[in-house]
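Q: Is it fine to ask for two folds in a single conversation?
A: Yes, each is treated on its own. Send the first.
Q: Here.
A: Result:
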Amino acid sequence: MRVLIAGSSGLIGTALVSHLRETGHDVLRLVRRTPAAPDERGWDPPAGRIDDGTFEGVDAVINLGGVGIADRPWTGARRQEIRDSRIVPTEVLAAAVAEHGVPAFLSGSATGYYGDTGGVAVDEAAPHGRGFLAEVCADWEAATGAARDAGARVVPLRTGLVLSPAGGLLGLLRPLFKAFLGGRLGPGTQYMPWVSLDDEVGGIRFALETPSITGPVNLVGPTPATNAELTKALAAAVGRPTSIPVPAVVIRTVLGSMGEELLLFGQRVVPAALESSGYQFRHHAVGEALSAAVGS
């Protein structure tokens, strides 16, 4: 299968390109600079421009772009950047998928779509919740409309918190735990929708190769874990004890709504679409996923 990927240089994109090539797929990468390799094609999303011939023979487009949501404070300008970096490229790609008759469009989204679900388990049929990220995700998924209207198989990829030795959530927490500064956040009872990097890319490939999958897919591990369970498992994986918990009031005071949504919202998300379609998870529990990542 010939697959065109936007966002191929990020944590997920880099792993996905390697994984798809190892499993026999022909991968092309969209880049925002002048193409410098045979597998690169240029584009400029704000200008709505994609190099001529880019979609020749392409069977599927995978869209993984978007600036980080946890690396800078959520100022008004940063909120707009988070939205624009996701919605504008998605609209451009959806229009191109429709124009060129590409059969499948797998496009980024996140479990932030559900907002704060507390202890209630939610699958792909649940409505979007409240909060900045929930609204961004809802609009991000709506931006695929042109491709869906043209008859393409559209799969929003609702990604959870990716556990990888190369970065992501573990990249932020691991140094704290090694320095004996890692503890649960807030009450610790809030669910955190974790997924190993192996199952993130494996789940995307499975959705790509399974024509019966259409509509959103939750890319999360099969066994939900609370913040307390995740931090305990991480402490064990790095051989450190957990330290004093960080109270919710401190998180809200220091980080504002960003801390509220990223660290205190609970999302007990389950991967119903993957499980019902027969996907075989490599990591079933957060402890084994963290041990694998830390040992990598």
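Q: Second one now.
A: Result:
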Amino acid sequence: MLQSFFILCSGADPNLLADCSQGEKSKYAGIGATVFFTAVMAFIASAYALFTVFDAVIPAVFFGFIWGLLIFNLDRFIVSTIKKRDRFGQEFLQATPRIILAIIIAIVISKPLEIKIFEKEINTVLLKEKNAMELANKKQIGTYFKTDLDKNKAQIAALKSEITNKEKEVNNLYNTYITEAEGTAGTKKLGKGPVYKEKRDKHDAALKELANLKTTNDAKIIELEKQAQTLQTDLETKINTAKPIIEGFDGLMARINALNQLPWLPSFFIMLLFLAIETSPIIAKLLAPKGEYDFKQEELETALKATLEQNKYQRELLVKTNATMHDKVYEDIAEDKRLYDIQRKNAEELFELQSNGFVEKQKGTL
């Protein structure tokens, strides 16, 4: 039962193999098994690759199954259409397009499995890339908001500096009138004289100005700080918005690029393994000597070809013979005197009718 299934997978004619030896049946069963398991590997590889795209099991399994059937059909077609010839060069030339197709299929099958085999290493590469992208994103967004934030900070600093300068001015005026009262500076007269009063009034006026300035600037600073908070919130919102996009940077193309950043030798040997599996039925058929099945297949083909050539020759001969017979028949008819007289009489009557009709038309015209 299993052997019959694998023979079916090989594309061989089971009726021709029925009378062949067990060894010949085993050879084609082995070829069919290779075709079948290659299709199974193609299903697994494509299902995994599609799972990374759709992130869902059912679509990945469904389309992976379709892809596996496609690869199975292609491999079966490739193996079944390679026929043994008397010269290896002719066989290899016949198999060259199929070998190229097998190489392409092997590369397509191996790549998703390479991604799965080196999944941990690929995740490490992707993590580094995600971190770099996140830092670059923060830097880009920070640069975008930097002008507004710097301007906001400069305005707040200017307002605070204005208050500080005013406080220094008030403190200096305070020291001036205190030292005047103590007699250690200014007029150096102890007591609260007119100069002291003048300096005290000047200090009190500056102190009122400081109070008004603080009230005004504090209100402005509060408003600017609110604006700064809004800008900072917008900046963090944009950074957080980009985070899911960066975290989702692990699709099929990203993983293939990450795989290309890893050492090439392990991936190369895995691809060679699948290439060997994919081309093994073709190579086996090229290297194997002619067997019973090949001789029987060749016999059927030559017999069919001979029959077709014979039928074609008979049809051409039949057409030629019929043409000769028809020529002879019409030649004999042409020499018959009775038929000649009948044909002449009919021609005379027809000519007379044509002549009379022409005369009637001419009269009508006149």
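Q: Anything structural to flag on that second result?
A: Two points. Residues 63 and 151 are 56 Å apart (CA to CA). The chain is about 90% helix and 0% strand.
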